[in-house]
Amino acid sequence: MKESVLNALIQLFAVVAAVNDDKLSPKALGIVRSYLERWVMQHQIKKYLSLLKEYHRSYRNTLESAGNKVAPDEFIIKHTGEVCHKVNHDLTRKERLIIFLRLVVFVNEDNVVTPEEELFLDDVASHFYISETVSRQIRLFVTRQDPSECSSEHVLLYDFREQKLVPPGQISKKGDCLVFIYIQEADVLFVKYAGHRKLTISKKPLLPEDVYLFRDGSVIRDDKGDMPPLYQTDVVKSFQRSFHVDKIFFYGHEVSYQYRSNDLGIKPFTFSETGGTLVGILGGSGSGKSTLLTLLCGKRTPHSGKVYLNGYDIHKNKHRLKGLIGYVPQDDLLIEELTVYQNLLFNARLSLADLPEEEIIRRVEKVLLDLNLYYVKDHQVGNALNKYISGGQRKRLNIALELIREPAVLLMDEPTTGLSSADTKNIIDLLKQLSLKGKLVIASIHQPSSDVFKRFDRIWVLDRSGYPTYIGYPVDSIEYFKKISTQVDVIETECPVCGNINPDQILEIMEARNVDEKGRLTEKRKISPREWYDHYLKLIRPTIRLPHKKEKLPHSSLVVPSDFKQFLILAKRNLLTKLANRQYWIINLLEPPLLAFFLAYFLKYITEGHYLFIENRNIPVYLFASVIVALFIGLTISAEEIFRDRNTLERESFLFLSRPAYINSKIILLFSLSALQTLVFVLIGNSILQVKGMILPYWAILFSVSAFGNMLGLILSASLDSIIAIYILIPLIMVPEILFSGTMIPYDDLNEHLSNKKYTPLIGDLMTTRWAYEALAVAQFRDNRFEKQFFAVERVISNNSYRTSFLLPEIKNTARYVGLNKDVDSLRPVICHKLALIRDQFHRLVRYTGVPPFEYTDKLYPDSLREEFYDDFMGYLDFLDSRFTRLTQEATARKDHILDSLAQKMGNDGLLKLKQDYYNNRLADLALNRNSFKMIIEYKGEWIRKKDPIFMYPENDWGRAQLYTSNKLLHFYYIDTFFFDLFIILLSIITLYFLLVFDILRKIISFFRF
To answer: Which class for 499: exposed (0-12), middle (13-18), buried (19 or more C-beta within 10 A)?
Structure first.
């Protein structure tokens, strides 16, 4: 306490004394002395008592010199107001009540309260903002011998015969009596004793008729042992029961957990706690404090035993207990990019859906005020490198996120680690206030100070490897450990002068090590964890009584919004998070235009001093590079999305929010960003390379690829536990997408175990880049303004010229070979194979061209060959040749007609420019396979066409075809390759979506994890 404040308080004592007494009585001086002993050292008490006498003498002189000019009432009002005004800003609510009570004791020292003294007390109460009700109860408590006049809401009596606390009026007025008054709003408890027993309060005499502050951690004992210890926390709980708070019974029976890889975990542990209790968990490193908390919150399932809340198994009844248990892990669970206010507001919207927005905002602001966070509410939370709020403020905000929904049980892991002593005290005071409202708060704590230690109502002590060693009252713990370790100073658990306790003694005693003959510490402990556990089983475990019936569950204020409303809230939160990260937006908005510029600039092939699109050899490279860029950008912007939210998801797991709503909120923003990125990329890249009229097809494909990358990145982000692992996997994804896309290495040149000469190999069909690149290449070749005029007739020309130039000559050559060697027995298998090729091809020609079938197809077997129908065979081939030649000529004539029409309309120069602007020779070389020397090959018992793949009609009913084929066949329907490939990519996105929503990959990884 400041010297100026204490000086002013001495004046208050002097003011009231000066009105009634010429001299200070010994009893009055004794009252002031007892008050001073709490605030100053022993050698300073004399100084302040002398100061009291001086003030008293001065005030008496003032009154006597004024005579009848100044009434006592005026004197009291004037001087009391002046003094109270000086100290008001330096006194807490609790300190004001303590001072007021001491003033009441002071004025009642002669057992008479004069009207002037009543006025003085009223004036002090008014300036200290003490309500009339509380002021009256304190006066009655101090001045009345009969406690029945006091309100049962504020006063309880201890019945020595029944050994329990009862309301006033339930015990006789005669005999020994302990009277307690509790002011809940300030968490202050006073005790007064009337009787002849020898009682102690915190091992100091409890004198009759005096009033004592019943501090945290204090205990009243009877020297004879006729009454059980009366702990401060039990008295406060008795008052709480009269406040009609929800009943909370949280208990566990033989709860244990063991890690696979070591002996750490929790050994069978039984506990029972009730609402209105602040429980501290103490233990060294590796004692299992965090593990125990995860078992108690339901995050981890025990290997044996069960945990109950009001009789309900918390692991089997998670949805029924929704919102009743809150958990704050040691790590921050904050969204770094949002402000303090936004973090709390979005959490409230997800927790209190039944409240209107105005009420939610009011609650948020109230919690911010209660936790002293209001003045930093607009500060961004930040991270370890960029701090915008202090460590204590971060801790309080983490707690606020749970407090906003008012859970019945709050579990906290190391809430004070890394905080200053002042922040630690504030956090513990906050937790204490929660417990005083009837909540059960359980927190692991590291190296608490004496004051912090005493604030706990109960403590649990764990030893290494999760061995429970103690459950009970903090003030008894040190005595317990000293007694078991056979120390001589068992009863000396706190300082006799200041009353401080050293909690470090617990771990020091528990972990004490033996010394060798040279006096050096050994690794062996005097008492092993197992031995401490045995003492716990023998001395403490039998005293724990577990409830045997179910109780009504406490009220839960948690109301989760509908899935759609969750999506809207999460989407808005996600957007604000991204908008607050300027670096994120700058990089992601500049990356596509820069990549498009560099890619297009370096691939702009110029011949003879000017650029022609038709001559640019790098257009296919540009198409493929664009696909890779889209995939890469999609992957990188999503690879950390869910991983960065791990802490937030852990906290919100207790809200049982919709996973699809969360996933959709991520997807909508990523897809929007990818749509913008790919559009900018296409506009800039196509503009530089003068790719005309293809904006929409290019954007549709690149956006779908980027969206696929988004989904893939989200799955990695949701499934892997390390950001390093995520970015290591990205190259492992990108390399196959590049190698097996069909551009870097032709599919026919792959390893024979992977390749497929007839269709794109299966490994290629699994690559999104294959579908995307093919769709772009086909669209660019076929749908440009020049080629789309001729594509249909060129297709007819290509298909029929292939038959006349390659297929029919191959059949004739095969037939000649068969005719020359049909009687050679050693070549019989070859002959059978050759005839099978011919039969297969005849069937295909009939099916796909509609030509009449060969009359003797069923005779094309070695044993059925006859010379007489050889001429018919060759005649049939000549018929086919003439028919296909005629169709080629007709199509050629139609093409010439189209050319003539365009030349007349545009002129020869205009037609040439149209081709130069829209047609690309290098892409045509790939789509028409001009660089291959073999236009027809034999593969697995059939002839495979390699000429002009873009003009081919596929034959597989399931969409399989060669690269660049312009159509896909799906159950007798030809589908445009562009739309078919786009559909395949979209189908891949949908598949990844379901894998993500159901978290399949993470479940697989967890299944194989040891």
So the answer is: middle
